[in-house]
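Lab meeting, item 3. Inverse folding demo.
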């Protein structure tokens, strides 16, 4: 008589990836990158620490997904604004406010990451990616607002937006003044 071996069935996990992202996102925004621990996320989610690694290979991958999802939502709003804004100035200043809010949500994380594990190359590549996406929205906005000359310099305008966000001595008014000069 042959005994049939039981097939190994993966354990059904009660915790969803979305719950992990929600819990970790709350801790990350409240306490920052350094205080976010895989062990604490697992505890709050009611799972073993090892189970966490079935979803994410590391804390950095978890953080990257949280930030990427948030940016994707911000970018989606910007693309919609590019289609619906009545004027270039109105649309671009909305881009600024959306990007500034995104940056503010993760300000502590960005600072801690750049000091602890972030390399200049990694941060620079992310900056270039953001500039490219903001420039794409800026081009669409410029064309929809009847300002094709602004579409031609969208990358520079996008870089100005990012500079204003990253420089404490610049502000929304200085960007708005710059845009007015560009338009008129």
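The presenter then showed the designed sequence:
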């Amino acid at each position: 008589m042959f005994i049939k071996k039981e097939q190994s069935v993966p354990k059904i996990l009660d915790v969803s990836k979305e719950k992990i992202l929600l819990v970790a996102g709350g801790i990350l925004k409240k306490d920052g990158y350094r205080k976010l621990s895989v062990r604490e996320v697992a505890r709050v989610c009611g799972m073993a620490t090892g189970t966490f690694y079935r979803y994410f290979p590391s804390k950095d991958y978890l953080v990257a997904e949280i930030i990427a999802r948030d940016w994707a939502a911000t970018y989606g709003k910007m693309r919609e604004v590019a289609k619906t804004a009545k004027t270039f100035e109105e649309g671009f200043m909305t881009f600024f406010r959306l990007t500034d809010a995104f940056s503010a949500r993760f300000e502590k994380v960005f600072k801690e990451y750049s000091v602890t594990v972030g390399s200049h190359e990694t941060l620079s590549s992310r900056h270039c990616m953001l500039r490219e996406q903001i420039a794409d929205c800026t081009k669409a906005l410029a064309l929809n607002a009847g300002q094709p000359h602004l579409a031609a310099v969208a990358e520079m305008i996008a870089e100005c937006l990012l500079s204003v966000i990253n420089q404490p001595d610049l502000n929304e008014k200085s960007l708005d003044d710059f845009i007015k000069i560009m338009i008129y």
